[in-house]
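SEQUENCE AND FOLD
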Amino acid sequence: MNKPSCLLMLAALVALPASGQARPAKASSLTERNRAIISDFAQIFYGKRDVRTAFNRYVAPDYIQHNAGILDGRDEAIAALEPMFSQPEARFEVKRIIVDGNMAVIHLYGRAGSVGSGGTVADIYRLKDGKIVEHWDILQPIAANTKNPHPYF
């Protein structure tokens, strides 16, 4: 095999991930763009607890909500979440953010007030055209006693 052919083959192999399949550049750039959006959303929403700014900037008006206690719609989510997030004792600590294409997960510790130990939360978001359009959540209360030394996080 001549030198140019070897270099082309080597370049093709380097472009392959461990699975042996090439990763489409479009999916990678979509993931990177959505990671930036979700990271900024998380910083404003959970870090600064500024529900209105986070939702007005990053959530679509016709946002679909799968939490049984909150209606669909950006304005409805703001109305439901602002009271909880504005409590002085409220605390939210993002532990990890996972983004793949148009889907994102924010895993966090949350406590809405001074009562109780709080809980672990996995907020799952679907994005479209740079906006959060759909949300699911999984909530697990922090137990007083656990059977293993590494629960939750």
Notes: The chain has a mean pLDDT of 87.
